[in-house]
Design goal:
By secondary structure, the chain is of the alpha/beta class. The chain has one domain: Spore Coat Polysaccharide Biosynthesis Protein SpsA, Chain A (Alpha-Beta Complex). Helix content is about 30%, strand content about 15%. The chain is built from 5 helices and 4 strands; from the N terminus they run βαβαβαβαα. A 4-stranded parallel beta sheet has the order 3-2-1-4. Strand 2, helix 2 and strand 3 form a beta-alpha-beta unit. The chain starts with 8 loop residues before the first strand and ends with a helix.
Amino acid sequence: MDTDIQPINTIVTASDTNYLWGVFLLIASMRKNGMNEPVIVLGEGYSEAQKQSLKQFNSVEVYDAGNYLRSMNCAKPAAMLLAKTEFASWIDCDGFFSGNCSDALLDFPPDRIHIRMSGEKETELSYVCEYESG
């Protein structure tokens, strides 16, 4: 990332160690597709080696969630508040990018919360092997 240009959006996610693989693939898919946004991961129970496996990608910070007693879904607001950029985009820890979506993440009216749901056709294409007969 060009150090003279300050990012305006941070990708935020959270998981326990059961979904470390998902977080890894999420970040790898971003970097593979030229998405250079900083990433914040709120992780529960991550070992130092697991944290380092994520930090090997540029601009990744891993915060310890401690022994979170509720579902990690309840930690979303706390994780979002860790972002230090103008915008923060929550991406579930089992999400991935198949292209550079950086501009699309910021394409919404100002002063609003933007929630994007996958359409039926998009979902079918994401899980095509699940739906094909045979």
